[in-house]
């Protein structure tokens, strides 16, 4: 600590009534997320195997969108839970990390960029997943059949996402002054504020909350809006105005895939929404609630992997046969039919 911070720590900070709870400390985000990742990683690897090796012919068009979505979800979870676990002090937008990268000496700003890029990739993979479903409906007038159109579309989305990096322009260059200003706005942070190499993204609490209140809803609405549009088109052309040229069997399969994809998206999203709710519904700021929000967000990986493995019937059967040794009734029927044909041929 510098002399100014030493003076503040020995005088003003000693008067603070601080929480000594495990959850408020850096261990409250580091240890739970590490444990979560221990359970999440085998499920993620299993989901990769099931998608690549067990996707049936009728899911051919879904195989790679599901793979890319699971890939970017896994990258985000791995970064959040293992490599760049964040400890965020929200009122002053102060942040440091307690993951593997921090012990390797990688700058915090680089880690924040990695976390942001992984989050944007995750959001884009969900848009791609729903856009692919929408494109599979042949009568959809809004589908992008041409590859060039899809490249332009996703390029524009990526370009719009880059505006989130505006936070780089508000980071104070004089961090010592920024830290002292931040302490004026929030005088009693946890002791980690003084013992870890914290980065103040913005020392003005009013500006910080304004940025969060503006950019977070815009980002969420922008990402969700694209997905809602593609889902709405799919629902309209499957349920409201179905084509007479498409067989009922094909329409039934498309409806099933759509419901499964929506459910697959909904299950892990619950953890993210619950995490945001924990952080922003508290009447007063609490570091325990902030850290708990990060821990709950870390459960996204388990929820997403379980959704992939058990939402889609072919993947559910393959997972059951691999782990629980379930018997495939369809396989038994095929074997019985084959035996019957063999007996008839012998006769």
Briefly say what this structure is.
The protein has 347 residues and is mostly helical. The protein has one domain (3-10, 21-311): Rhopdopsin 7-helix transmembrane proteins, CATH 1.20.1070.
Q: What layout of secondary structure does this protein have?
A:
Blueprint: H1 3-10, H2 27-54, H3 60-83, E1 86-89, E2 94-97, H4 100-103, H5 108-135, H6 147-161, H7 175-185, H8 192-195, E3 199-200, H9 205-240, H10 248-280, H11 287-298, H12 300-311, H13 313-324, H14 329-346
Antiparallel strand pairs: 1-2, 2-3
Helix pairs in contact: 2-3, 2-11, 2-12, 2-13, 3-5, 3-12, 5-9, 5-10, 9-10, 10-11, 10-12, 12-13
Structure, described:
The chain crosses the membrane at residues 35-54, 66-90, 102-130, 151-171, 209-240, 261-280. Keywords: Membrane, Receptor, Transmembrane, Transmembrane helix. This is Serpentine Receptor, class H. Pfam families: 7TM_GPCR_Srh. The protein has 347 residues and is mainly α. The chain has a single domain (3-10, 21-311), classed as Rhopdopsin 7-helix transmembrane proteins (Up-down Bundle), CATH 1.20.1070. 71% of the residues lie in helices and 3% in strands. The protein is built from 14 helices and 3 strands. The chain has helices at 3-10, 27-54, 60-83, 100-103, 108-135, 147-161, 175-185, 192-195, 205-240, 248-280, 287-298, 300-311, 313-324, 329-346; strands at 86-89, 94-97, 199-200. It has a 3-stranded antiparallel beta sheet. β1 and β2 (94-97) form a beta hairpin. The protein is elongated, with a radius of gyration of 25 Å. The termini are far apart.
